[in-house]
Design goal:
The protein contains 1 helix and 6 strands; from the N terminus they run αββββββ. It has 96 residues and is α+β, with helices and mostly antiparallel strands. The protein has one domain: Immunoglobulin-like (Sandwich), CATH 2.60.40. Strands 1-2-5 form a 3-stranded antiparallel β-sheet, with no helix packed on it. It has a 3-stranded antiparallel β-sheet with strand order 4-3-6, with no helix packed on it. The two termini are 34 Å apart.
Length: 96
């Protein structure tokens, strides 16, 4: 019984540490001349596309007291782009 519990714990830990299924391919300010504009374009793709539209959760300014959450759908090819506002210049994306 102990072995089953330990094996289950190890499997769960390895799943949590697995690489993210979402890869950010570009992240840039839309108006690079205006340093006060928080508008950025974030593009990415699924590491392994499923052939159908998937929902991606994008978090702007993660780890701050006021993060922004955006949801965007991928195309059938697994790619997506979204405009978002960020005040720290950081964002994260994950499969929803």
């Amino acid at each position: 019984m102990k072995n089953i519990i330990i094996a289950s714990g190890l499997l769960f830990s390895s799943l949590c540490l697995a690489a993210s299924p979402v890869k950010i391919t570009s992240f840039r300010y839309v108006d690079s001349q205006n340093t006060h504009s928080p508008v950025t374009e974030l593009c990415g793709e699924l590491v392994t596309p499923t052939g159908k539209s998937e929902l991606i959760k994008v978090t702007a300014d993660p780890g701050t007291s006021n993060p922004g959450t955006y949801h965007v759908s991928t195309g059938k090819d697994g790619k997506f782009c979204s405009l978002l506002a960020t005040y720290t210049g950081n964002a994260a994306a994950e499969l929803e």
